[in-house]
Amino acid sequence: MGNIRGKHTPIFFLFLLPSMFAFTIIIIIPLIMGVYYSFTDWNAVPGTPINWVGLDNYIAMFSDVTFLHSFIVTIVFSAISIVLINFLAFMFALLVTAKLKLANLYRAGFFLPNLIGGIVLGYIWFFIFNNAIPALGSAAGSDFFSQSFLGNRYTSLFAMIIVTTWQMAGYIMMIYVAAIQSVPVSLLEAAQIDGAKYYQRLKHILMPLIAPAFTITLFLTLVNTFRMFDVNFALTAGGPSGIFMGQALRTTELLALNIFNTAHTFNDQAQGQARAIIFFILLLIISLVQVYFNKRKEIEA
Predict the structure, then answer these.
(1) What pLDDT score does 60 carry?
(2) How far is CA 120 from CA 117, 155, 199, 233, in A?
(3) Interacting residues of 238 by C-beta distance below 8 A, sequence separation 6+
(4) At what angle do helices 103-111 and 65-96 cross, to 10 degrees?
(5) Which position among 67, 134, 167, 217 has the lowest Cβ density within 10 Å, counted as fewest Cβ atoms?
(6) CA-CA distance, 143 to 289, in Å (whole number)?
(7) Do the Cβ atoms of 266 and 253 come closer than 8 Å?
(8) pLDDT tens for each residue of 158-174
(9) Which residues of 99-108 are buried (b: 16+ CB within 10 A; e: fewer)?
(10) At a CB cut-off of 8 Å and minimum separation 6, what does 179 contact?
(11) In degrees to the nearest 10, what's the CA dihedral of 171, 176, 182, 183?
(12) d(CA 60, CA 85)
């Protein structure tokens, strides 16, 4: 077997070549160029000389109140969204794997929002929060619901969390469903015969056996919520305005949107590249730490 593998190694690499070429062109080279541009005064204008400025972009970034605020808001948004998405997804998975007549219909209905693009989803919920809910609130005589959720800095962030949870819960649910269906039914039935109640079977048998699924789902929700852009752009565009540390800024501007606005709205490409590099490093570190601790829990379980 070893000789066969060694003999066909060039063929294996030949099959990998198209994917590796695309990965290098689309990911590796832009990443290297981005790191270089973050140390310059690059403005993306053809023919303009590029000057080396060292760490000036990084120093300016960490002294920028809007970046610090976006970082805090992103942490809060991600933390709440991760909890809600995984909780609802797990509850949905338990529901659709139960012996229900319409389980497949429920499964399709829960998964459907994930098929809608983030920009389209944002505009749909923009209409709901700005028109549908206020109209229903006014008809019901509710002062709270008669106002747009997007007009207040706190309710607008909560609105983003609702939309993100509604979109992602169905997708995460499918991972839990696959994990639950891989658990031998005989184990659960044996525990039930021995007198274990439902929550005991869930806590001591089902959840430890699907621990790898929790690692995957937490990783996916962490990465996707931390780099959220499309829903943020379409739903709130970073608004409404507010004051933070004595400076006016967009109160729901997440890090990805902050980078986009820095690079394109304010035409500071080099500064945008520096923020993107720090954003990449932060996301990489947080993801690795999360996976590491989840893997340890899998071993303990």
Answers:
(1) 92
(2) 5, 21, 39, 11
(3) 232, 250, 251, 252, 253, 254, 257, 258, 261
(4) 170
(5) 134
(6) 44
(7) no
(8) 999 999 999 999 999 99
(9) eeeeeeebbe
(10) 209, 210, 212, 213
(11) -170
(12) 35
Give the CATH number of domain 65-300; options: 1.20.1340.10, 1.10.3210.10, 3.40.630.30, 1.10.3720.10: 1.10.3720.10
Neighbours of 112 (CB within 10 A): 10
Domain locations in the chain?
A: 2-37, 65-300
Q: Peptide bond preceding 18: is omega within 30 degrees of 0, i.e. cis?
A: no
125 phi and psi, to 5 degrees?
A: -75, -25
CA distance 172 to 243: 36
Q: How many CA atoms lie within 13 A of 278 on its CB side?
A: 23
Q: pLDDT digits over 185-241, tens only?
A: 888 888 888 888 888 888 888 888 888 899 999 999 999 999 999 999 999 988 888
Which residues neighbour 79 within 8 Å (Cβ) at sequence distance 6 or greater? none
Contacts of 206 (CB under 8 A, 6+ apart): 180, 183, 188
Reported as a single tens digit per residue, the pLDDT across 121-149 is: 889 999 999 989 999 999 888 888 888 88
Q: Which of 289, 280, 269 is nearest to 48 (CA)?
A: 269
pLDDT of residue 1: 46
Straight-line distance from the first to the last Cα atom of the chain, in angstroms, rounded to the nearest whole number: 36
Cα angle, residue 240 at apex, residues 238 and 244 outer, rounded to 5°:
85
